[in-house]
Amino acid sequence: MSSILVTPLSAIEDVIRSHRPSHMVTLLSPEHMIGTPRGFPRDRHLRLGINDVVDISAGENPPLRCHVEQLLAFSRDWPAEAPILVHCWAGISRSMAATYIILCDRLGRGSELYAAKAIRSRARHAYPNALLVQYADDLLGRQGRMIDAIRGIGAGGITAEGEVVEFPLVGL
């Protein structure tokens, strides 16, 4: 059974070693972007240089629709035979939004609330980036259901850094 592993930047080396993911998504500010970890295949590492903002006019390098298009294309190429690692700086916002997007895409229409509740039940600290979710909702034709579901679970508990969280594709 495969899964999505969400982690803060500080834990990626340990997670790679212990879970042996086949693919990795990095969502970091361009000035903090990392290279592909030693020994990890570069063609299986998607690096999205975006800041964690929810208003496109709120700063430099906000998430854009094209970033979600890249995430969806990359995650659809993931065969799910081994885990995919998704991380951002703290494992709270950008990475949780990306995980929610991948789950909604994999689980299909009607899964929006189920996936949001799964995120909240496994990650009390999760606070998915609303702008990334908004783009995905539009791209996946979910007519606001993804946005409503994320709003429905509310903001996560306040913490400086999340912990490693696993989301199995079966039996969430």
What oligomeric assembly is this protein in? single chain
Cα-to-Cα separation, first versus last residue = 12 Å
CATH-defined topology: Protein-Tyrosine Phosphatase, Chain A
- Following the backbone from N to C, one meets helices and strands in this order, namely EHEEHEHHHHE
The radius of gyration over CA amounts to 14 Å
CATH class: Alpha Beta
Strand order of the largest sheet: 3-2-4-1-5
- Tell me about the largest β-sheet: 5 strands, mixed
The geometry reads as globular
Give the count of helical stretches: 6
CATH superfamily: Protein tyrosine phosphatase superfamily
CATH architecture: Alpha-Beta Complex
Strand content: 15-25%
Structural class: alpha/beta
| Total domain units | 1
Helix content: 25-40%
**Tally of strands:** 5
Given as residue ranges, the uncertain stretches (5+ residues, pLDDT < 50) are none
- Average pLDDT works out at 95
Distinctive features:
single chain; 172 residues; alpha/beta; Protein-Tyrosine Phosphatase, Chain A; 5 strands
